[in-house]
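Quick entry, no commentary yet.
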Amino acid sequence: MPAGGKLKPQKHLYEEMVYIARGHGATTVWHKDGKKHSFEWGPGSLFAIPLNAWYQHFNGSGSEPARYFAVTSAPFIINLFHNLDFVFENDFAFNDRFDSSAEDYFSGKGTLYGRFFLSTNFVSDTHSIQLADYSERGKDSTNMKFDLAGQTMCAHISEFPVGTYKKAHHHGPGAHVTVLSGQGYTLLWQEGKERIKVDWKPGCVVVPPLQWFHQHFNSGAGPARYLALRWGSWRYRFMRLDAEDGSSYTSIKKGGAQIEFEDEDPNIHRQFEADVANAGAACRMGAYHPFCTHKARSSA
């Protein structure tokens, strides 16, 4: 959005999640016959547009442009109904998803279930929100999983420390992994085929294809954090491919979708140690990774 600009009001029958990459501004949301709700956002903010509600984005700066990144279910919904009037001109109000009389809908308040399942409608800063332990995906890894505005789409944030990487796994399509901080790379491959290396830094987006193995590596000098916008809500199940609880962090030897460290190709860790050294850091996986040569180092 240009400095001082705004987008046209719109509504639609597909879901949409919005991540603010740059700038400050506000969004107004309303039903046709309901009260308007406005909330402010800044770099790192995350929110979802309530289904089929009217909304409008405003750039609050008169001198700087604003940029946002959105992931939607538009292709699926448009292909399903193949009637644009129905998708964009439908007046049905989903009051169960957005109650226009609620004063705190976009306040950032939420309900936490278990360790890291958060139901909310607005996250003010994805860079600083506190995460919870998720060592199932790699020692000292942390995570927070979001149910946003009652959607079947969802999001999660993961962070992992210097000198470490996550275990490889595979899952359904459409996970848009947006790098928030850190520097590293991701390996992607189809089972039995050559691995593809994708380097990343803040602002990069990586989207693993359907059921491809992928593995994220922190080869930089600071913690790495990313935001994934995707299918697979933990609250409102949609696809059979993602319906097995725990499969993404259960070993493939036990019927899951994750490759444990002891089962990975030793060349993967060998290359990681070299990449970390080139960044002026050191591998910190010696206390638990069977192929690590830094056995004297702990993960602390």
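second:
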Amino acid sequence: MSVSPITCHILDTTVGRPAANVLCELTYLSSPSSSAIATAYTNADGRVKEWSLANPSDASSEWITSELRPGLYKVRFNTLQYFSNMQRETFFPYVDIVFQIPESPDAHYHIPLLLSNYGYSTYRGS
């Protein structure tokens, strides 16, 4: 099991703990069909280290597990279900983070999300 070149981490700042079991969807926006290419749920530590291909029979999307393509990407964090499971309200049913991979990609891109019911923050992680 190898770590994907795109990883995520969610911390729920209202309780000071990782946000586990959050559905995350990865979309490659620089393609004609901008549908999710991969999905994952955050683990107990609030992390996504590897993705499941949205369409395993589509060999053109297998690169997400090994080598990145330059272009625009989006990670959608489905936060409504997370907060509903915690019996808490939220203003944001999901959080979309759009980022750009340059022509000469680095080996790894980490997308952290600091999340609360009524706000969120992100930055380029390492």
